[in-house]
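User: Here's a protein and a ligand (manganese (II) ion). What would the complex look like?
Assistant: Let me lay out the input and then the predicted complex.
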Amino acid sequence: MNTHQVRSIFLSDIHLGTKACQAENLLDFMKNYSSEYVFLLGDIVDLWSMSRGGVSWTPAQNTFVQKMLRRARHGEKVFFIPGNHDEAMREYVGTSFGDVMVVHEYIHTAADGRKYLLLHGDEFDQVTMHYKWVAILGDMAYNLLVRINIYLSWLRRTFKIHGYWSLAGYAKRKIKTAVNFIFNFEDAVMHHARELGMDGAICGHIHWPAIKEVDGLTYINCGDWVDSCTAIVEHPDGRMELIHWGVAQQTQPLNLPKPKAIETETEAELTV
Ligand SMILES: [Mn+2]
């Protein structure tokens, strides 16, 4: 097997410990990429869902954790930035677990010299910040969509309908409030990165993979491993690439309207 050698791998929102986590897919991706750095940008272990809805810990999820620790032991520099679903880990910022360093925000200098602020991003999600109950409702609705989607994929397999179609992805594309929410989030993250004098930011949290220019800075979102199955890789020359892995490789490219064109509606109810 040909392994791609990249400089860095950025992953977020894996949600280990939940049924929706696509650990097999993720393992397959990791097998194909070796790197100097691995950055885990939050919501890696979903302690929040586990405490509310029970633990779903599969062998593949276990293997992912083992492989990650192994890669760290063998010299890959692995950093973990806790998110809101694993925020209990924020207490351990500054320490390391078996060569995995736990940090809060981290400045990564790419091979081309560009400075990226690495963060999970939940602190820039107005809904999670101010309306905890909306966040919980949104989370339940999202989990429901993901579960229905698991059922739909099973139906498609049973009836041998090829390709992959994501209900949650479809809902995210169609719901105007969700789109509005995403732009608010991106703007807030980029404002923060600009204040710190960065060239860009790499985050997660909203389960919406992206690489784009926002007013001269680069906004990058890793996406997730419950729905999109996406990761960001940094090539040896510093070029950043968004990788769609496995079943989700066939999803449509995102076509978003410009932020200006969005009518203001009620509070966004999508949260992750
Ligand atoms: Mn999050």
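Summary: Residues 42-43, 83-85, 120, 122, 205, 272 surround manganese (II) ion (CB under 6 Å).
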